[in-house]
Design goal:
The protein is an all-alpha fold. The chain contains 3 helices and no strands.
């Protein structure tokens, strides 16, 4: 996983105020969002 993708995921989590919401918005599983961070 590249650092740019991980940073985008992190920013989305902050904006959405949660991992599940960010995962839904990005079309990813909550587990992959957690792994990215």
């Amino acid at each position: 996983m590249n650092e740019l993708h991980a940073l985008r995921v992190f920013c989305q989590v902050v904006e959405m105020e949660g991992f599940s919401q960010a995962a839904t918005k990005m079309g990813l599983s909550p587990a992959s969002v957690t792994y990215s961070i």
